[in-house]
Amino acid sequence: MPLWLREHSWRQTLTAVYLSLPLRGARATPANIFCGEQYLKVSIPPFLFEAILYAPIDDTNSTAKIGNGNIYFTLYKKEPAMWDSLTLANADKEKLQYLREMAVLKAQEKAKEETEAKKFTKQENKKYALEATMKVEEAERKRIEELKEKEWQKVTKELELWKNQQKDGDKYKSIQKKGELREEIEPLKERKKEKTNKTRIPKEGTSKTRLKSTKGDGSCSIFSPTLKEEQLPVPRAAATIKVNFTPRVFPTALRESHIAEEEEWLHKQAEARRIINSDLSELKDLKEEEKNPDWLKDKGNKMFAVGNYLGAVHAYNLAVKLNNKLPLLYLNRAACHLKLRNLHKAIEDSSKALELLTPPVPDNESARVKAHVRRGTAFCQLELYTEGLQDYEAALKIDPKNKNIEKDAEKIRHLIQGTIQSS
After folding, report:
1. Please, what is the end-to-end C-alpha distance for the chain in angstroms?
2. Which of 159, 215, 286, 303 could lock onto 308 through a cystine, CB 3.0 to 4.6 A?
3. CB distance 300 to 293 below 8 Å
4. Cα separation, 314 vs 285, whole angstroms
5. How far apart, in whole angstroms, are the C-alpha atoms of residue 291 and residue 319?
6. Rounded to an integer, what distance in angstroms lies between the CA atom of residue 327 and that of residue 315?
């Protein structure tokens, strides 16, 4: 049961009521105070103060201050008047309950309106910010377009000026060439005339006709300035050349690449993506980083190290489904099958690993030795000693200094001899 706070003091003016409520050592926060138009409640467990006010107040402007072990209320009256008492006297329980419920409902509606108003204000602020951003971007875009237009006009003027300078330079050069040609032609003509006068005695008829032919309209001398101008080519017209390049996946140029290797790499990548994106029920629950064959291989190795051979086999199976070209996956899974006595599966995985470990190079010697030893062990456990001895001898050819393999091979030879003698 709550303890009612009966002790309080109050005073009033024509427009306000001042109420002081002692806290009795309790600590109050704004969450402990509820104030409506005609209902006031302070709930500080285990203390409780509840009052149905004599007349309505302005709950929006009314205030409450906490300090010095008291709560000081300043309640502003809606209508200026002097109250006969702080609380409503002679009110039955039903009326008190009704006023209490109405105060709570009004408080809820007010909180809802405030929330909606805040939401609307927030939306309006966002809208205003968006419009302001759009205006700024539009102004910036216009500024950039104006700068581009100014630069374009400037470049166009400079280009026109350069073209005019080029034309003036060509005209000056052509005039200069004409003057030089005339200076060269005149002494040549004089020398030619002197030679003809000395060597030939021209006849009257022929000389006239020759003079006409040289001086007529149809003359075509190679030293003629008009012919020189006609033979000059027309200036080239300005144009834009578009160059199209073949799209390439690789950053290197086509002349520096190896097409066969690139096509093989692209094919492998497409195959890997197809396998990963295929509808495999085992891969649906995996994360993106777990869909990596190397990650699954490391997980299988850790499980094998702690003796969880079934879990390791499951990890290697998923890795093989993602990439079936890694020989170490088959080699490690063969070791798990040997521990689980799945001898036929161990032989299959060892054989598959040997197929992938081709061509034989120094880098894969240790892997090939393990594959032969594990397959030979599985054969011997199936009592196929001849096949097992072949694998051990193949491992000895790769690593002849391995004493353990040599001892195991010698044991298998003794077993084979013992079976032959017993038979």
Report:
1. 100
2. 303
3. no
4. 14
5. 8
6. 15
For the stretch 227-279, pLDDT in tens is: 555 567 778 788 888 887 766 666 676 666 677 777 787 777 777 666 655 54
Find all residues with CB under 8 Å of 264, minimum gap 6, and list them.
none
The CA distance from 412 to 363, in Å, is 28
Query: CA-CA distance, 22 to 7, in Å (whole number)?
Result: 7
Distance, in Å, from the CA atom of 324 to the CA atom of 355, rounded to the nearest integer, reads: 12
Going across the sheet that includes 63-67, the strands are: 9-12, 16-22, 70-76, 63-67
Tokens of 194: 């002197």
> What is the number of other CB atoms lying within 10 angstroms of the CB of residue 54?
19
Residue 333 in contact with residue 313, Cβ under 8 Å? yes
- Positive or negative: CA dihedral 251, 257, 261, 264: positive
Selection from 346, 334, 349 nearest residue 304 by Cα: 334
What is the pTM (predicted TM-score) of this model? 0.38
Tokens of 361: 């190079």
pLDDT tens-digit profile of 277-293? 554 556 666 677 777 88
Q: Which of 94, 4, 14 is nearest to 51 (CA)?
A: 4
Q: How far is 256 from 254, CA to CA, in rounded Å?
A: 5
Residue found by looking up tokens 């032989």 in the block: 347
Q: How does pLDDT run across 143-181, given as a tens digit for each residue?
A: 999 999 999 999 998 898 898 888 888 887 777 777 666
The runs of H, that is alpha helices, within 216-326 are 225-230, 259-277, 293-305, 309-322
Query: d(Cα 349, Cα 264) in Å, to the nearest integer?
Result: 26
Q: Average pLDDT over the chain, rounded to whole?
A: 80
Q: Is 40 helix (H, G, I), strand (E, B) or coil?
A: strand
Phi then psi for residue 232, to 5 deg, are -70, 135
CB 338 within 8 A of CB 331: no
Q: For the chain, what's the residue count?
A: 423
pLDDT at 213 over 70: no
Alpha-carbon distance of 310 to 314, in angstroms, equals: 6
The token pair at 319 is 């890795």
